[in-house]
Amino acid sequence: TDIVSIEHVSIPSMAKLFYFHGVGMINQFTKNWDNIQNFKARPDDILTATYPKAGTTWVSYILDLLYFAHMGPDRQTSIPLHDRVPFLEICKPPLPLHLTSKLPTTPRLIKTHLPVQFVPKSFWEQRCRVVYVARNAKDNAVSYFHFERMDSGMPEPGKWSTFLQNFMEGKMVFGSWYDHVNGWWEKKQTYSGFHFMFYEDLIEDCGREIDRLCSFLSLSPSPEEKERVKASVTFDNMKQNKMTNYSTFDSMNQTISPFMRKGKVGDWKNHFTVAQNEQFDEDYKQKMKNPDLKFRYEI
Ligand code: A3P
Protein backbone atom coordinates (compact mmCIF):
# COMPACT_ATOMS: atom_id res chain seq x y z
CA THR A 1 0.00 0.00 0.00
CA ASP A 2 1.07 3.51 -0.71
CA ILE A 3 1.12 5.31 2.62
CA VAL A 4 1.63 8.63 0.87
CA SER A 5 -1.92 8.56 -0.40
CA ILE A 6 -3.40 7.91 3.03
CA GLU A 7 -5.12 10.96 4.49
CA HIS A 8 -3.24 11.87 7.63
CA VAL A 9 -5.30 13.40 10.39
CA SER A 10 -3.77 16.30 12.35
CA ILE A 11 -4.81 17.85 15.62
CA PRO A 12 -5.95 21.48 15.15
CA SER A 13 -3.36 24.05 16.16
CA MET A 14 -3.13 27.80 16.66
CA ALA A 15 0.67 27.80 16.38
CA LYS A 16 1.93 29.87 13.47
CA LEU A 17 5.39 29.71 12.00
CA PHE A 18 7.24 32.99 11.52
CA TYR A 19 10.82 33.95 10.75
CA PHE A 20 12.90 34.99 13.71
CA HIS A 21 16.45 36.22 12.94
CA GLY A 22 16.03 34.25 9.73
CA VAL A 23 14.94 30.99 11.39
CA GLY A 24 11.45 29.47 11.43
CA MET A 25 10.04 29.67 14.95
CA ILE A 26 6.81 29.74 16.89
CA ASN A 27 5.89 32.11 19.67
CA GLN A 28 6.27 29.70 22.56
CA PHE A 29 10.01 29.43 21.89
CA THR A 30 10.73 33.12 21.31
CA LYS A 31 8.48 35.03 23.67
CA ASN A 32 11.04 34.95 26.47
CA TRP A 33 14.00 35.51 24.24
CA ASP A 34 15.94 37.84 26.54
CA ASN A 35 15.66 35.43 29.43
CA ILE A 36 16.84 32.59 27.23
CA GLN A 37 19.77 34.58 25.92
CA ASN A 38 20.74 35.69 29.43
CA PHE A 39 20.60 32.18 30.86
CA LYS A 40 23.53 31.59 33.20
CA ALA A 41 25.11 28.25 32.57
CA ARG A 42 27.36 26.52 35.06
CA PRO A 43 30.61 24.89 34.02
CA ASP A 44 29.31 21.40 34.75
CA ASP A 45 26.01 21.81 32.86
CA ILE A 46 25.55 19.31 30.05
CA LEU A 47 23.64 20.56 27.03
CA THR A 48 21.95 18.04 24.74
CA ALA A 49 21.23 19.68 21.41
CA THR A 50 19.24 18.24 18.52
CA TYR A 51 17.06 19.12 15.60
CA PRO A 52 13.56 18.08 16.73
CA LYS A 53 12.88 14.34 16.40
CA ALA A 54 16.50 13.26 16.07
CA GLY A 55 16.63 11.26 19.31
CA THR A 56 16.53 13.91 22.03
CA THR A 57 14.45 11.88 24.43
CA TRP A 58 16.52 8.75 23.96
CA VAL A 59 19.84 10.47 24.71
CA SER A 60 18.33 12.57 27.52
CA TYR A 61 17.20 9.38 29.19
CA ILE A 62 20.58 7.70 28.77
CA LEU A 63 22.26 10.72 30.35
CA ASP A 64 19.78 10.91 33.20
CA LEU A 65 20.29 7.24 34.03
CA LEU A 66 24.07 7.46 33.78
CA TYR A 67 24.18 10.33 36.23
CA PHE A 68 21.23 9.76 38.49
CA ALA A 69 20.09 6.13 38.52
CA HIS A 70 21.93 5.82 41.83
CA MET A 71 19.56 8.38 43.40
CA GLY A 72 17.07 5.56 43.77
CA PRO A 73 13.82 4.62 42.05
CA ASP A 74 11.75 7.69 43.03
CA ARG A 75 13.31 9.98 40.48
CA GLN A 76 12.74 7.37 37.79
CA THR A 77 9.14 6.53 38.69
CA SER A 78 7.69 9.87 39.70
CA ILE A 79 9.36 12.65 37.70
CA PRO A 80 8.68 12.74 33.96
CA LEU A 81 11.87 12.82 31.94
CA HIS A 82 10.98 16.22 30.46
CA ASP A 83 11.14 17.62 33.99
CA ARG A 84 14.44 15.92 34.76
CA VAL A 85 16.04 17.12 31.55
CA PRO A 86 14.18 20.38 30.92
CA PHE A 87 13.81 22.12 27.62
CA LEU A 88 15.76 25.40 27.60
CA GLU A 89 13.56 27.46 25.29
CA ILE A 90 10.11 26.28 26.33
CA CYS A 91 8.37 29.07 28.18
CA LYS A 92 6.01 27.35 30.60
CA PRO A 93 6.67 28.86 33.13
CA PRO A 94 9.09 31.42 31.75
CA LEU A 95 12.77 30.89 32.07
CA PRO A 96 14.74 30.91 34.23
CA LEU A 97 12.15 29.78 36.74
CA HIS A 98 11.22 26.55 35.04
CA LEU A 99 14.83 25.51 34.79
CA THR A 100 16.05 26.48 38.20
CA SER A 101 13.06 24.91 39.94
CA LYS A 102 13.52 21.67 38.01
CA LEU A 103 17.24 21.34 38.32
CA PRO A 104 18.32 20.54 41.83
CA THR A 105 20.93 18.14 40.49
CA THR A 106 24.59 18.42 39.64
CA PRO A 107 25.32 18.26 36.82
CA ARG A 108 22.27 19.92 35.35
CA LEU A 109 21.08 18.17 32.20
CA ILE A 110 19.47 20.60 29.77
CA LYS A 111 18.11 20.05 26.29
CA THR A 112 17.70 22.46 23.42
CA HIS A 113 16.60 22.46 19.79
CA LEU A 114 18.12 25.86 19.07
CA PRO A 115 20.32 26.26 16.03
CA VAL A 116 23.88 26.81 17.20
CA GLN A 117 23.90 30.58 16.66
CA PHE A 118 20.98 30.98 19.12
CA VAL A 119 22.55 29.11 22.04
CA PRO A 120 22.98 31.40 25.06
CA LYS A 121 26.60 32.60 25.19
CA SER A 122 27.03 31.49 28.74
CA PHE A 123 27.19 27.82 27.70
CA TRP A 124 30.26 28.56 25.58
CA GLU A 125 31.84 30.92 28.11
CA GLN A 126 31.49 28.32 30.84
CA ARG A 127 32.94 25.66 28.52
CA CYS A 128 29.93 23.38 29.11
CA ARG A 129 29.97 19.98 27.52
CA VAL A 130 27.64 19.54 24.59
CA VAL A 131 26.12 16.38 23.14
CA TYR A 132 24.58 16.81 19.69
CA VAL A 133 22.40 14.08 18.21
CA ALA A 134 21.75 14.00 14.48
CA ARG A 135 19.43 11.78 12.45
CA ASN A 136 19.29 11.25 8.71
CA ALA A 137 17.17 13.92 7.04
CA LYS A 138 14.59 11.54 5.55
CA ASP A 139 13.67 9.73 8.76
CA ASN A 140 13.97 13.00 10.66
CA ALA A 141 11.41 14.58 8.30
CA VAL A 142 8.99 11.65 8.63
CA SER A 143 9.19 11.68 12.41
CA TYR A 144 8.69 15.46 12.49
CA PHE A 145 5.64 15.17 10.23
CA HIS A 146 3.92 12.71 12.56
CA PHE A 147 4.92 14.78 15.58
CA GLU A 148 3.31 17.91 14.14
CA ARG A 149 0.15 15.91 13.52
CA MET A 150 -0.16 14.94 17.17
CA ASP A 151 1.17 17.95 19.10
CA SER A 152 -1.21 20.90 19.24
CA GLY A 153 1.65 23.19 20.29
CA MET A 154 3.22 22.81 16.84
CA PRO A 155 1.90 24.14 13.53
CA GLU A 156 -0.27 21.75 11.52
CA PRO A 157 1.93 19.93 9.02
CA GLY A 158 -0.56 19.78 6.13
CA LYS A 159 -0.32 16.89 3.70
CA TRP A 160 2.90 14.86 3.62
CA SER A 161 3.86 16.29 0.21
CA THR A 162 3.40 19.84 1.50
CA PHE A 163 5.30 19.11 4.67
CA LEU A 164 8.20 17.57 2.77
CA GLN A 165 8.45 20.60 0.52
CA ASN A 166 8.49 22.87 3.58
CA PHE A 167 11.14 20.69 5.18
CA MET A 168 13.36 21.05 2.11
CA GLU A 169 12.81 24.81 2.12
CA GLY A 170 13.60 25.07 5.82
CA LYS A 171 10.11 26.35 6.65
CA MET A 172 10.11 24.48 9.92
CA VAL A 173 10.09 25.22 13.61
CA PHE A 174 13.79 25.54 14.58
CA GLY A 175 14.57 26.22 10.95
CA SER A 176 16.24 24.21 8.26
CA TRP A 177 17.47 20.73 9.15
CA TYR A 178 20.37 21.32 6.78
CA ASP A 179 21.47 24.57 8.45
CA HIS A 180 21.01 23.08 11.91
CA VAL A 181 23.14 20.03 11.30
CA ASN A 182 25.80 21.90 9.31
CA GLY A 183 25.97 24.66 11.92
CA TRP A 184 26.45 22.30 14.83
CA TRP A 185 28.92 20.17 12.87
CA GLU A 186 31.03 23.28 12.26
CA LYS A 187 30.92 24.16 15.93
CA LYS A 188 32.32 20.75 16.75
CA GLN A 189 35.44 21.59 14.74
CA THR A 190 36.36 24.48 17.03
CA TYR A 191 34.87 23.59 20.42
CA SER A 192 36.55 20.89 22.44
CA GLY A 193 33.79 19.77 24.82
CA PHE A 194 31.68 18.36 22.03
CA HIS A 195 30.32 14.88 21.36
CA PHE A 196 28.49 14.31 18.07
CA MET A 197 26.16 11.32 17.95
CA PHE A 198 24.01 9.74 15.25
CA TYR A 199 20.59 8.20 15.77
CA GLU A 200 21.52 5.44 13.32
CA ASP A 201 24.56 4.50 15.44
CA LEU A 202 22.34 4.23 18.51
CA ILE A 203 20.01 1.90 16.63
CA GLU A 204 22.94 -0.15 15.39
CA ASP A 205 24.67 -0.59 18.75
CA CYS A 206 23.30 1.28 21.73
CA GLY A 207 25.85 -0.27 24.11
CA ARG A 208 28.77 0.99 22.03
CA GLU A 209 27.23 4.47 21.93
CA ILE A 210 26.77 4.45 25.70
CA ASP A 211 30.46 3.53 26.03
CA ARG A 212 31.47 6.41 23.79
CA LEU A 213 29.26 8.81 25.71
CA CYS A 214 30.76 7.63 29.01
CA SER A 215 34.26 8.10 27.73
CA PHE A 216 33.40 11.65 26.60
CA LEU A 217 31.92 12.40 30.02
CA SER A 218 34.65 10.57 31.96
CA LEU A 219 32.08 8.26 33.53
CA SER A 220 32.88 4.69 34.38
CA PRO A 221 29.71 2.77 35.25
CA SER A 222 30.10 -0.83 36.32
CA PRO A 223 29.15 -3.48 33.74
CA GLU A 224 25.91 -4.09 35.69
CA GLU A 225 25.03 -0.40 35.75
CA LYS A 226 25.69 -0.17 32.07
CA GLU A 227 23.50 -3.18 31.34
CA ARG A 228 20.69 -1.63 33.38
CA VAL A 229 20.90 1.60 31.42
CA LYS A 230 20.94 -0.31 28.15
CA ALA A 231 17.89 -2.37 29.12
CA SER A 232 15.93 0.68 30.30
CA VAL A 233 16.44 2.67 27.12
CA THR A 234 15.18 0.16 24.55
CA PHE A 235 12.36 1.47 22.37
CA ASP A 236 9.83 -0.93 23.88
CA ASN A 237 10.71 -0.08 27.45
CA MET A 238 10.64 3.65 26.81
CA LYS A 239 7.31 3.29 25.01
CA GLN A 240 5.80 1.50 28.02
CA ASN A 241 7.38 3.86 30.55
CA LYS A 242 4.97 6.68 31.46
CA MET A 243 7.90 8.83 32.54
CA THR A 244 9.54 8.68 29.11
CA ASN A 245 6.64 8.30 26.63
CA TYR A 246 5.21 11.81 27.11
CA SER A 247 1.84 10.42 28.18
CA THR A 248 1.84 13.10 30.90
CA PHE A 249 2.05 15.89 28.32
CA ASP A 250 -1.26 17.71 27.67
CA SER A 251 -0.64 19.10 24.20
CA MET A 252 -0.07 15.69 22.61
CA ASN A 253 -2.80 13.46 21.25
CA GLN A 254 -1.14 10.08 21.17
CA THR A 255 -4.13 8.38 19.55
CA ILE A 256 -3.29 10.36 16.39
CA SER A 257 0.34 9.25 16.52
CA PRO A 258 2.24 8.02 19.57
CA PHE A 259 5.30 9.97 20.72
CA MET A 260 7.24 6.70 20.75
CA ARG A 261 6.10 6.02 17.21
CA LYS A 262 8.33 3.49 15.40
CA GLY A 263 11.93 4.06 16.41
CA LYS A 264 13.38 2.73 13.17
CA VAL A 265 15.95 3.62 10.55
CA GLY A 266 14.40 3.57 7.07
CA ASP A 267 10.73 4.33 7.76
CA TRP A 268 11.14 7.09 5.16
CA LYS A 269 10.77 4.37 2.53
CA ASN A 270 7.12 4.04 3.57
CA HIS A 271 6.54 7.75 2.97
CA PHE A 272 8.68 9.03 0.09
CA THR A 273 7.50 8.38 -3.46
CA VAL A 274 10.21 7.60 -6.00
CA ALA A 275 9.83 11.11 -7.42
CA GLN A 276 10.01 12.74 -3.99
CA ASN A 277 13.11 10.74 -3.18
CA GLU A 278 14.88 11.79 -6.37
CA GLN A 279 14.01 15.43 -5.84
CA PHE A 280 15.11 15.22 -2.20
CA ASP A 281 18.47 13.64 -3.08
CA GLU A 282 19.16 16.25 -5.72
CA ASP A 283 18.39 19.11 -3.35
CA TYR A 284 20.35 17.44 -0.55
CA LYS A 285 23.54 17.41 -2.63
CA GLN A 286 23.30 21.18 -3.02
CA LYS A 287 22.85 21.80 0.69
CA MET A 288 25.14 19.19 2.25
CA LYS A 289 28.49 19.69 0.59
CA ASN A 290 30.75 18.70 3.48
CA PRO A 291 32.04 15.21 2.63
CA ASP A 292 32.93 14.51 6.29
CA LEU A 293 29.33 14.64 7.44
CA LYS A 294 27.73 11.40 6.30
CA PHE A 295 24.39 9.90 7.25
CA ARG A 296 23.02 6.40 6.90
CA TYR A 297 19.51 5.83 5.55
CA GLU A 298 19.31 2.16 6.38
CA ILE A 299 21.15 -0.18 8.70
P1 A3P B 1 9.95 8.02 15.25
O1 A3P B 1 8.90 9.08 15.10
O2 A3P B 1 10.66 7.76 13.97
O3 A3P B 1 9.46 6.77 15.88
P2 A3P B 1 12.86 13.25 19.88
O4 A3P B 1 13.06 12.61 21.21
O5 A3P B 1 14.04 14.02 19.42
O6 A3P B 1 11.57 13.99 19.82
O7 A3P B 1 12.79 12.06 18.82
C1 A3P B 1 11.70 11.18 18.78
C2 A3P B 1 12.04 10.04 17.85
O8 A3P B 1 13.00 9.19 18.51
C3 A3P B 1 10.82 9.16 17.54
O9 A3P B 1 11.08 8.62 16.23
C4 A3P B 1 10.95 8.11 18.64
O10 A3P B 1 10.24 6.93 18.38
C5 A3P B 1 12.46 7.89 18.61
N1 A3P B 1 12.95 7.24 19.83
C6 A3P B 1 12.82 7.67 21.11
N2 A3P B 1 13.36 6.77 21.96
C7 A3P B 1 13.84 5.76 21.19
C8 A3P B 1 14.49 4.52 21.49
N3 A3P B 1 14.73 4.14 22.73
N4 A3P B 1 14.85 3.73 20.45
C9 A3P B 1 14.59 4.10 19.18
N5 A3P B 1 13.96 5.25 18.84
C10 A3P B 1 13.60 6.07 19.85
UniProtKB/TrEMBL annotation:
One Pfam family in the UniProt entry: Sulfotransfer_1
Q: Where primarily located? A: cytoplasm
Its keywords, alphabetically, are: Catecholamine metabolism, Cytoplasm, Transferase
Q: Which GO terms describe its biological process?
A: catecholamine metabolic process; xenobiotic metabolic process
Sulfotransferase domain residues are: 43-290
Main EC class the enzyme belongs to: transferase
InterPro entries registered for this protein in UniProt? P-loop_NTPase, Sulfotransferase_dom
User: What are its E.C. numbers?
Assistant: 2.8.2.-
GO CC annotations, alphabetized: cytoplasm
- Tell me the compartments it is located in: Cytoplasm
Query: Recorded GO terms, molecular function?
Result: sulfotransferase activity
- The keyword Transferase is annotated on this UniProt entry: yes
Source domain of life is Eukaryota
Indicate the family of this protein: Belongs to the sulfotransferase 1 family.
Q: What is this protein called?
A: Sulfotransferase
The source organism is: Haplochromis burtoni (Burton's mouthbrooder)
